[in-house]
Amino acid sequence: MSAVVPTYSFLERDRRWSLANELMEARSLDALLVYGDREGAFPAFYAPDTWLTNERPGSIVVFPKGEEPIAIVFLTTVIEDHIQAAATGYRSWIRPENIYAGKMGTNVVEIIEDHGLDKCKIGVVGLEPYPPYYFDGVVPYNTWKSIVEDLPDACFEMVGSDFFARMAAKSAEEIAVLKWSAGVGEKICAAMRDATRPGVGEHEIYAAALDTAARNVGYCGQILLGSGLEFVGWGQPAWLYRPQTPRTIMEGDVVLSEVFSSFGMLETQHQPAIAVGNVHADFHDAAALARASYEAGVKALKAGTVFSDVVEAMRAPMRDRGCWQVHPLVHSLTPYTMIGAGERLADLPEMAHYGKVLPFPSMGTDRVLEAGTVFALEPNCGIGRRMINLGGTVIVGENGGIELNSNSTRLMHA
């Protein structure tokens, strides 16, 4: 990690606004309407608004072509923070007169009418699927209903895919922010390993992770975590959502986790798998196969490669052994638009007892990779009821992937 905390310049602002205007020109649009999900959930899972504003997430942005974007924020507290930032010398990308409070469709309509756009063609970001959380889009029903009913002469067009394609390849300033986030993630994984030993509760490992994030000027709003002599689950620790006692770590356990390290709204992902003492041979076999899949993915992540070839490269090492996968093998980061699933997702006998279970789809497999695009490589391999997940964050390079972290890309040992 650099000793200097990275920030964004006005050159970065102008680059992003220029890309947005290029999109409007290419699609013959008069404006963009960009929906940002609320803060308070890591800090927001869907936040294209911040790419244009460099402010708190959770606004609706109206961006008239050739003008400056307008942010409709959810509460006056955002405006108060904007005032406070100015008092400390920070120069915001968004001028005060372009910030409105009241994140409602009626305010969107008023701004569109005030700018003479009520009979124009407007591109919308927020209506298209955005897995893994928003398979039907993210804009609330009543917000969208107000907009389309009160602007009957406007033409709305979904442009989320094109918008995210333009923001996918990171600039030098963004890569500096990503590297900071990845450095924090490395330290989090090391702290989790150091905290893991027989007799320790899962909550103590979790606490070490969160403490390390904050102490190193990072953010980690959630961690997926589980442990056991056998383990097939994947998600937040059960004691976060269900009243129960955290599990105590035992000799022979494997602790599996996914760390979401974030800084400045750019996220890196880390997949620490920690062996506690002597673990079953199946865990070592699964770790070797997952590592081979990771290496294949890194090698394949080069500019000009079709994403489906990356997915196939990562599937191949595990195919002959007949491993199953607990979640996808690889996906893009900031934004989530390309996802590569394994061939035997959740292939457990118990699945036959459940209702209709739709498979997690691969997405964006026909995309040609561009240098600077960011991916989370998270190869996971289940052998029977013993599963290993490892990996980290990799940037597409001209000749192969550029790895941003290392300690979680192999089986770690407590």
Automatic annotation (TrEMBL):
Q: Which domain of life is it from?
A: Bacteria
Q: Write the signal peptide boundaries.
A: none
Keyword Ion transport (UniProt): no
The alphabetized UniProt keywords are: Aminopeptidase, Hydrolase, Protease
The terms under GO molecular function for this entry are: aminopeptidase activity
Keyword Calcium applies: no
**Which residue intervals define the domain Peptidase M24 in the entry?**
183-397
Pfam families membership: Peptidase_M24 (PF00557)
The name on file for this protein is Xaa-Pro aminopeptidase
